[in-house]
Hints:
The chain is of the alpha+beta class. It contains 13 helices and 7 strands. The chain binds adenosine-5'-diphosphate.
Amino acid sequence: MTVEEVPVNEIRSNLDERLADIEESLRAMMELVSDRVAEVTSAMLEGDVAVADQLVVADDDVDILSLRVEEGCIDTLIREQPVASDLRFVVAAMHVNMDVERSGDLVSNIAKAVGRLQGAHPDDHVRDLVVRMSSQAQLLMRRAAEAFRTRDSELAESIDELDDVLDDLHYRYIQHVISDARRGDLDPQQSLQLALVGRFYERIGDHAENVGERVRYIVDGWLPEAQAAERARERALDPEPRPTRGLAVIDSIAESRRIDAIRRDFVANVSHELKTPVGAISLLAETLEGETDPNDRERLTRMLSREATRVGDIIDDLLELTRLEETDTSADRLDIDEVVQLAVEKVRSFADAHRVEIAAVGLPSGLEVSGDRRQLVRALQNLLDNAVRYSDADQRITVTVEQIEDGVAVSVRDDGVGIPRAELERVFERFYRVDRARSRESGGTGLGLAIVRHVTQNHGGRVLVESKPGAGSNFSMHLPLAPLAGQ
Length: 487
Ligand code: ADP
């Protein structure tokens, strides 16, 4: 029987089965994560390292389910070609999958922290807040699973409020950890470890909130899109002819609302990103105040300075993005070889420190582009920085310049950790990171690729990425050539 001969209802039932399978695995994951949060919390409070170790190993269970969801989604897209709401479900399921899997990682991070917390004696307040944060995180995960099962968009919306409660608990928790550290009841290492544990619970809440957002997407569609459709429907029903200028005003209001929403999101993201280093700075500064041992003081000062550099880097990148949006891009005639050399020089010491070698291929190419030297050097520098950051010591990075059909391609290839396929598109989003810990550890801000994309677009070009986990990545900026002299 060929595909065309399969009766419609049979196709339907295949599709339904696949979707049900995806849904079941996702719910099982959420419930598993919620149970594990309870287990890891009691292991933590009892200082039970053996149980914590088991939980780190058990993290595989979530990964296996997650792989099953991923394969289910890809299979559904390839074999069933779902349309409309089913397609929306599959897209949302892929995102939910990522969020729940990350929550699983956070649980195993808490479990790892238990090992390092041995011998710590947090006071009753801190212990009480751990219990409360943990039950709030479990509640959030279970509520997310319930909203997902019932496709209840109001229930999904209520997750936001639950998350606010968790945020508040987290804030109070950090205050208590600080005062315990100040009184000398905890050593600096333990207070930082406890602060991290609190942060992990809070992040589990964030992921549940994301799941809520996806449920709303499945039920209501993308909100701005649904609102625009509603307005269009109202306009169509309205028998009164409207003056064109009036419509233009309505459209411009809709546009400014959309921009407002994007801004709000962005501000929320920025605050979130700054909260961690700023929280760490206040914690470290408070601890430093009461510290007399010169070795501890030196270590704390070093950590303090690293966190301060991180805040500075985030602010620098934010300013760069604003500049890219607000100032015109100059159109100077530039030698692309020179741009590459300048960028390589700028990352040289960072690469040396990581024992990573940078090789250039195809230089001199003699090719020219028209654009802004500072912007292009910065973009290429970001690609090189990332290639170093996500490579291991003694690996090599290759920068290639080559002429392509309609312009020039400048590519940066590394043999580093690579990026999973499902996340390739998202890495260009502001603050999106595949591996948060690695990015932070190596001084990443989560804004580098957003800047690269912006710069490339400003130059009428595009940026492409190919990558394979474990095998490395190749980021390529395609830019139009400068017009020939006299044109
Ligand atoms: P960051 O400052 O975190 O590196 P970017 O915007 O530059 O932020 O990159 C976003 C994310 O994309 C990174 O956190 C990382 O997960 C991934 N990424 C970027 N470049 C590479 C690369 N060369 N290899 C592997 N992952 C990469």
